[in-house]
Amino acid sequence: MIQALQNDSVLFTAPMTVNENDFIKVKTSTEAQVGPNGKVLFEVIDRVANAPLRNNSLDRIYSNLFLPSVSTHTPMIFSRYLATLKNGGQLILKEPVLLEELSNTVSPISRKQDDIVSLLKLAGFVDVSVRETSPIVDKDLLYFFQLWGVPQDRIDQGIVARLSGKFGVTEIYAKKPSYNVGQKITLNFKKKKAAVPPTTTVEKRKKIWLIHTNDNSDDDMELEDEDDLLDEQDKMKPSKESLTRPDDCDLSDGKRKACKGCTCGREEGDEEEEGNVVAIDLMDDIVEEVIEVDPTPKENSGCGSCSLGDAFRCSTCPYMGMPAFNEGDKIKLGGMFEIDDIDAF
Q1: Closest C-alpha to 64, from 13, 8, 106, 103
Q2: What does the angle CA 276 – CA 282 – CA 288 come to, to the nearest 5 degrees?
Q3: 322: which residues sit within 8 A by CB, 6+ positions away?
Q4: Helices 75-84 and 113-123 meet at what angle, rounded to 10?
Q5: Three-class SS state of 257
Q6: What does the pLDDT look like over 94-118, one tens digit per residue?
Q7: Where are the beta strands (DSSP E) in 54-182?
Q8: Of 43, 190, 244, 330, which has fewest CB within 10 angstroms of its CB?
């Protein structure tokens, strides 16, 4: 039964095969309910996804209510319905579903009512409920087969009787939430202050502060006497000597001397005054030791090839690492090796 309120905007969707007379009757009845300021619209269900419908403009949508109809609702159609409905708008739909699992039979219907409910929830609808699911009688099932395009010879072979009671039509109700998808709101996490009961008179407000300090208001209140907290020694004024830091160092010849095992630093100060501290200069002149090497071969040389270079020298040769030289000549470094490094810069 179609229900609408005054000034509502209602949309009907149906396939192209809808009976025109049935639709006119429903449209006339709905227009009388919504009044002159309301709207009654019609759209082919297969064209809903691309229809020029404004968002948040419809109060109710009746989808696929004119039977027989073999049209199914896709996720795209559900998303379009959700966008065009106002917040809190209603969707009422009908769709053929399976009541039992089919074995060895190819059917254009493959969904049950629970599958449609899941699709509606995933699309964003709330309060989704199945109002009624009724089986399709054999007489109406024949029209469904004709709309599906089943050949007449198959219908004559008793396919209607074999699939009787396995198809039904479900009616589902859904509602758009009271907010738009993607809407942002600010969450307030501040703690609310406890409400303070109002005071009627000024005396009551003053009493809050005087109740713990006014001794006369309560005879049973016992306060500590501050004089009992101090003894006679605490009341005496300290002398200057008692406030002076005691000096434990030995006194000799009218001067304090460091004790044995001094830790206060007096011992180091006494040594500096007496001149017992010796400063060591680590930058004293260092005499360089120059070693002259006589390149003349030693008489006890075993190989006699010392002057020819390292390639001809023994492993224990005293001239190992020196350049080749003539016997009797002094070795003199030439080129860059005879220039002082400091003078070069």
Answers
A1: 13
A2: 140
A3: 293, 295, 331
A4: 50
A5: strand
A6: 988 888 877 666 677 788 899 999 9
A7: 58-63, 85-98, 126-135, 167-175
A8: 190
| Rounded Cα gap, residues 248 and 256, in angstroms | 9
Instruction: For residue 324, give the nearest of 335, 314, 313, 337 by alpha carbon.
Output: 313
Cβ distance 130 to 171 under 8 Å? yes
Angle at 179 between CA 120 and CA 87, to 5 degrees: 75
Phi-psi region of 108 (alpha: psi -120 to 50; beta: other; left: phi over 0): alpha
What are residue 174's DSSP bridge partners?
91
Encode pLDDT of 201-222 as tens digits: 666 666 666 555 445 555 666 6
The one-letter amino acid code at 1 reads: M
Considering only CA atoms, which of 125, 42, 41, 54 is closest in space to residue 91? 125
Straight-line distance from the first to the last Cα atom of the chain, in angstroms, rounded to the nearest whole number: 111
- Measured at the CA of 49, the angle between CA 47 and CA 53, to 5 degrees, comes to 90
- CA 16 from chain centre, in angstroms, equals 50
